Q: What sequence folds into this?
């Protein structure tokens, strides 16, 4: 186990994208390396939502005749990466709940209102989709995590 952790830390130390992804609250070394390998430089995705759809973190749509019907998440794409992002979101939500503010105020208010409106589990999946969008935006623009600019 220690040998694998050492290998993972060596990979992270050599990759600037992984270092930047680990600045996002809730994202750890394993998720950062998975995201960096899956997204690349972000040129394959038009925007963050298309990456979230690629890994299956957006609602299925059954729309017809001008009526939009959104169901549960599609669960398509990389199942392991989706699971990691949900666990990261759960960890980030836990820090928000205990009063530590890893995000800017806008995301924090949004997620607290979502927990009240829809429940904790749906809020966790929504935050996972938000983390995927943030990660894709960071890698495609080549920027680092900024709390104030996190209202994407």
A:
């Amino acid at each position: 186990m220690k040998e694998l952790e050492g290998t993972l830390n060596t990979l992270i130390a050599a990759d600037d994208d992984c270092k930047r992804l680990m600045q996002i609250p809730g994202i750890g070394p394993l998720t950062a390396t998975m995201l960096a390998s899956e997204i690349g430089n972000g040129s394959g995705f038009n925007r963050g939502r298309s990456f979230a759809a690629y890994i299956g973190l957006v609602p299925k749509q059954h729309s017809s005749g001008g009526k939009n019907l959104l169901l549960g998440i599609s669960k398509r794409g990389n199942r392991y990466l989706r699971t990691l992002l949900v666990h990261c979101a759960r960890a980030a939500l836990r820090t928000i709940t205990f009063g530590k503010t890893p995000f800017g105020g806008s995301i924090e208010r949004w997620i607290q209102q979502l927990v009240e409106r829809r429940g904790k589990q749906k809020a966790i999946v929504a935050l996972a989709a938000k983390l995927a969008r943030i990660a894709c935006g960071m890698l495609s623009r080549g920027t680092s995590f900024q709390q104030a600019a996190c209202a994407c």
The mean pLDDT is 82.
